[in-house]
């Protein structure tokens, strides 16, 4: 496997009039891995993916994908990549078999290879018994498997997936991720955009986008490890009142209810007396609540990466 990254981006920028959708993003995506794009709607994930695919021309910046310059060599690149969109984009009035046959033609799969490749994908993604079913009558999970089969029809080196599991149930999502890891086992590089924390945890590496800016990049373990010592559980008989007492407290970056407890994220640089100071604040508000250190998770990472930007915008 090549040591060069599958995707190498510097200063990637996209403006739509006065709107700065992607703001000078630098990115390196290693080969043969699942690289996650995490961010809320409107953060620039889809716009970035479309530029990386050559579907959208950047305002500024340099893009190299699989050793090719984009958008200059976008046509050559399209033969080597797959793209699965958020919404089902195949033909609902064609059968499963007809969709696969049509996509094979569009992607230039050789005729002598096409029949065997379609049969292989139908078997792999459990579509053989639905060959003659109209795609529009399938369930969300079945449509997802068909879309993935079409996206990998030509055995791409790199697969882009734009929020691919947003409309499926948890069991279908687990099955889908197993299929993705089978692709990486075979050497395919995957770039997956998501706003779901449980999906982000599955990625080998993550980038977090916020209002078009890259605000965090690293492995899930490294990103959560950087927050060690800044996360607490707050146990209280009345978590809603305790939350109101702490939400504006100095040093509190974020606080949210999780079941019968509160999860609190502290700002950087809080000293050893931080938890005791908050407990005194709670006592003063008539709340007999206590803080306990707890391991950070990716939701904490997301809050730590994006909340400072919210404060800047509010100011």
From TrEMBL:
SMART domains: AAA. It comes from the Bacteria. Pfam families: ABC_tran. Keywords: ATP-binding, Nucleotide-binding. PROSITE patterns: ABC_TRANSPORTER_1 (PS00211), ABC_TRANSPORTER_2 (PS50893). InterPro entries: AAA+_ATPase (IPR003593), ABC_transporter-like_ATP-bd (IPR003439), ABC_transporter-like_CS (IPR017871), P-loop_NTPase (IPR027417). GO terms for molecular function: ATP binding; ATP hydrolysis activity. The keyword Repressor does not apply. The keyword Nucleotide-binding applies. Residues 7-236 form the ABC transporter domain. SUPFAM superfamilies: P-loop containing nucleoside triphosphate hydrolases. PANTHER family: ABC TRANSPORTER G FAMILY MEMBER 20 ISOFORM X1, ATP-BINDING CASSETTE, SUB-FAMILY H, MEMBER 1. This is ABC transporter domain-containing protein.
